Amino acid sequence: MPVYVYEYLDPQGEGTGQTFELIQSMSEDALTEHEGKPVKRVIQPPNIAGHWSDIKSKSMLSNENLDRLGFTKYEKRGDGYMERTAGKEGPKSISLDD
């Protein structure tokens, strides 16, 4: 189940900056009150964990690594022209003007 972040509201309905986390089912409605005080759910960016989320991801997507894993990659080299920079399959270049 996801963890949601809630913020306490002042009497005017503005956020106070005071927050708490709550584990809730996605099918449950958002809270409007907690401990007798008004609250709102705060939108949070997703937390994507794993080997793709760290600094190593740039080296994992390097042309050499993509080539080793059997992927083909094309990069734009000019207006309407792309050149293969990784992989052995497919044409060496692609002209988008044809």
Q: What's the main sheet like?
A: 4 strands, antiparallel
The main sheet orders its strands as: 2-1-4-3
Mean pLDDT: 86
Shape: elongated
Describe what this molecule looks like in 3D.
The chain is mainly beta and 98 residues long. 10% of the residues lie in helices and 40% in strands. The termini are far apart. The relative contact order is 0.13. The mean pLDDT is 86.
SSE blueprint:
Elements: E1 3-9, E2 15-23, E3 33-34, E4 37-42, H1 57-60, H2 63-68, E5 73-78, E6 81-86, E7 93-95
Task: Describe the structure in brief.
The chain is mainly beta. The protein is 10% helix and 40% strand. Strand 5 and strand 6 form a beta hairpin.
Labels describing this entry:
10% helix, single chain, 98 residues, three-stranded antiparallel beta sheet, four-stranded antiparallel beta sheet, mainly beta, 2 domains
